[in-house]
Design a protein that fits this description.
This protein is α+β, with helices and mostly antiparallel strands and 340 residues long. It is 30% helix and 19% strand. The structure holds protoporphyrin IX containing FE.
């Protein structure tokens, strides 16, 4: 059966898989963090918290004036850069890098919001263009093996190797996604999964204005060199990124349910809708341990026009909610969204 444009195809077994994944994620956190601060299940190492503005472009054509992008307005935002690995490692390690953007002062009811007075909208982006697993079952199997590798490294790593041998496409995707990074401000970032754009469907992309001129440091690089470089760059001046949306134009070549397939930019070139600016600023190191670690991002904290789509997004909703609650409870910090 040929899939239809803009349409989701949920698996009837999805709710059971979602519950299994939530249980597994909670079990992982409880087994890993018996004492000390409770970190995130993934994206455990925060690299920097940066303030900025997210300005919707003026004079957008009618088909782009949707939801958040309907009005040419500038929103203050707070952003958290992170490495994706569940265990904090030196920045020189291969990893996926992430940028979470929290816009403040956004009018309208979000699909999901845990702080009723807040007017925040989140955009979650990664340095990889695609997600690692085509199906929920394979994703759960992989997460189970990662926990096993953490608890019993020799046996667990052998099982992980076997999984990657059986699933070479996932192995190749992970190898491609895990990159070394010279400078966080020189990377493009992607939403990886589809989102509604009113009646249509898009993926998000963020492109840096800054040329990739930074070089990887040597093996004696400081543990946190990505933070140090970002601080240096933002102390010197403003840094900008373009935010773009890429429309789904072919339901087979640009699927909604399989986020391991990259959407071709030849078939559908991304179109610019906003500019993210990090104004010249001094990055305050303590803020990384306070603001950054206490923030929570959730792709469902968005307007109904931008509803997250596909199995990856559907299963994320209860997991991010539960993990954030649990993390804040364990750290004795109230769940609260920043105000503009
Ligand atoms: C089924 C798939 C996924 C699961 C189960 C999952 C799970 C999680 C969890 C548990 C956290 C930590 C939340 C917290 O403690 O507040 C997290 C954070 C994050 N996830 Fe996912 N995720 C998934 C897919 C994705 C995808 C496709 C992206 C692509 C953009 C993504 C981007 C992020 C980012 C950027 C963060 C860090 C947020 C922050 O800075 O606080 N995730 N994810």
């Amino acid at each position: 059966m040929k899939p239809e444009l803009y349409r989701e195809y949920p698996d009837p077994q999805e709710a059971a898989g979602q519950k299994r994944l939530l249980d597994l994620t909670m079990r992982t956190l409880k087994q890993k963090y018996l004492t000390g601060p409770q970190l995130r299940d993934t994206h455990a190492k925060g690299l920097a918290v940066v303030k900025g503005t997210f300005a919707v472009d003026p004079d957008l054509p009618a088909d782009l004036r949707v939801g958040l992008f309907a009005t040419a307005k500038s929103y203050p935002c707070v952003c958290r850069f992170s490495n994706t690995d569940p265990n904090p490692k030196p920045d020189l390690s291969r990893d996926m890098r992430a940028l979470s953007i929290k816009l403040m002062g956004v009018e309208g009811d979000m699909i999901w919001q845990d702080d009723r007075e807040a007017k925040t909208l989140d955009l979650l982006l990664m340095s990889a263009k695609t997600f690692m697993s085509p199906t929920l079952d394979l994703f759960i199997e992989l997460q189970e093996l990662l926990l096993k590798a953490y608890m019993t490294p020799i046996l667990g790593n052998a099982s992980l190797m076997w999984f990657f041998l059986k699933n070479p496409r996932i192995a190749a995707g992970v190898m491609k996604a895990e990159i070394t990074c010279a400078n966080l401000l020189e990377l493009p970032y992607f939403g990886e999964t589809p989102y509604a754009f009113d009646k249509k469907v898009v993926q998000y992309k963020l492109v840096p204005h800054k040329d990739p001129t930074s070089r990887l440091p040597g093996s004696d690089a400081p543990f946190n060199y990505l933070n140090l470089r970002l601080r240096e760059d933002l102390a010197a001046g403003d840094v900008q990124f373009d935010f773009l949306v890429q429309f789904q134009v072919d339901p087979e070549k640009m699927p909604i349910e399989d986020s391991t397939i990259p959407w071709s930019e030849t078939l559908s070139p991304p179109r610019k809708v906003a500019t993210l600016t990090f104004q010249k600023q001094t990055i305050d190191e303590p803020a990384l341990g306070t603001t950054g670690e206490h923030l929570s991002f959730n792709p469902w904290r968005t307007l109904p026009e931008h509803r997250p789509l596909g199995w990856v997004n559907r299963v994320r909703l209860p997991i991010y909610e539960a993990i954030s609650k649990f993390r804040h409870l364990r750290n004795s910090v109230p769940v609260s969204e920043p105000r503009a």
